[in-house]
Amino acid sequence: MKVEKIIVLGLSPTAKYVGKEAYLFNIKCIAFDFKNGPSKYSRYFENTEIISESELLEKLKRDYLNDGVSYYVCPTSDEWVEFLHKNKILFENTNLKTSLSYLDGSYTLLADKFELMSISNKIGLNYPKSILFISNNTNSPDFSSLDFPIFVKPSNRVGLASVMQGKKGWLFQTKEDWNSFETLKNLEGVELLIQEVIVGPESNIRVLGTVASKGKRVDTWIGIKYRQYPHGFGSGSLIVEDNGDHELDEITDKLLKETQYSGFFALETKFCDKRKKTFIIEVNTRPGLWFGATTNAKLFFVSQWCQSLGFMTITFKGKNHEKVNKPVVWKYFYKDLFISFKKTSKYSSKILIPNQKINSFAVF
Question: DSSP 3-state assignment of 277?
Fold first, then answer.
């Protein structure tokens, strides 16, 4: 029988999501990272290792390349997606497999904020009004086309972890706030997207997850992002399934058709109360942490991603493989506990959690 395994790049909670779902299908996983993480001692991995980039490349060539096993290499962060693209030669006619868009670089059409804005405008999708700015520590952006408040974020976050410190970007209420932006000195030469703030409560934010191959997707999972950490502009801490929102399916299909994308796909949108339109916020081209909810919903994106790459021996070992009818409520417990005690903004709204539900928690 052909031996097939997943190499998970990362030891984050998202990596554990990948390992946990693979475990349900008897797929063995090996995980690597450049730093320690919550998945280091997880039972879902056959082996984990903290390793340098040069050591990892050497190990892949020496121990894994053409050893008779098929390896499906799954990135769990933007940095790992870039690693795959940078080392695409390892995947040319070998036993290492991953999504084509990670190798040919077309993932940037969605992951890069400026590219996403350009494509959205081209195919008639709503994207926040934005300007591009590259700081040289002496110039200033032209704010004439934007009204404050504004939100500022890098077009590409790769390599900026120490500057971002877990944030998605920075909110400025006034031009004076911008003028006192101390972090800007650490962003010299970085392409920044400065954009309008979409007005509305956090419950106007929807997320969609799926897996695509050459522009075609499998089923989607959609949720309402009721709370996020940090509050206002962060990662989801409480997301409630809402698969009645077919507009997100339509947005996804248009983006996938235009880009012919292959890989994991995580869309975030927000409905503008002022203009009564849904705006694209971002697309992530790897699994999101909240993808753990999709496992509870029995959509199994990891196994479907493997199958899209030719994985042959997938066998579900659980009791029931059918999609569930109850909505899934996903929570990043400790972060959500913290944010739920903080004073909420004027845009906060009542959280509508169903009585009949399936609870899903971020995997630690």
Answer: strand
Specify the amino acid at residue 99: S
Question: Residue 177: enclosing H or E segment and its boundaries?
Answer: helix 175-179
Residue 204's nearest CA partner among 267, 272, 257, 140 is 272
Q: Which helix (H) or strand (E) holds 359?
A: strand 358-361
pLDDT per residue, tens digit, the chain (364 aa), is 679 999 999 999 999 999 999 999 999 999 999 999 999 999 999 999 999 999 999 999 999 998 899 999 999 999 999 999 999 999 999 999 999 999 999 999 999 999 999 999 999 999 999 999 998 878 889 999 999 999 998 888 787 777 777 777 888 999 999 999 888 888 889 889 899 999 888 889 999 999 999 999 999 999 999 887 666 566 777 889 997 768 999 999 999 999 999 999 999 999 999 999 999 999 999 999 899 999 999 999 999 999 999 987 777 666 666 667 789 998 887 676 666 666 454 444 566 677 778 788 776 5
